[in-house]
Amino acid sequence: MVPPEQVVATIAVLLATAPPPAAFTADCASQPTALAAALAASRSRAPGTPATITVTGTCRVTEPVTLSGPTDDHLTIAGAGDAPAISGGIVISSWKEHAAATCEHCGNT
Question: What is the pTM of this model?
Answer without folding.
Answer: 0.66
